[in-house]
Amino acid sequence: MEEVTINTTTIKLDQFLKWAGIADSGGQVRTWVDAGIILVNNEIVTERRKKIQPGDVVEIKETGIWKVSGS
Asked: How far is residue 54's CA from residue 71's CA, in Å, rounded to a whole number?
């Protein structure tokens, strides 16, 4: 599990994935959400703008797992 630090109290999922260098674009995130392969805290995400905060764990099936930490 890789740790990614954010400098805010919350961040939208699509922004987080772009910030961490995991996704190239919001369109890519939308494709992943539609495919049901993104989980936050072991729950399938249905909206790409879901708010993420420190302590959350983001998983993309067969790609990786990232823990969100605050600064």
From this structure: 9
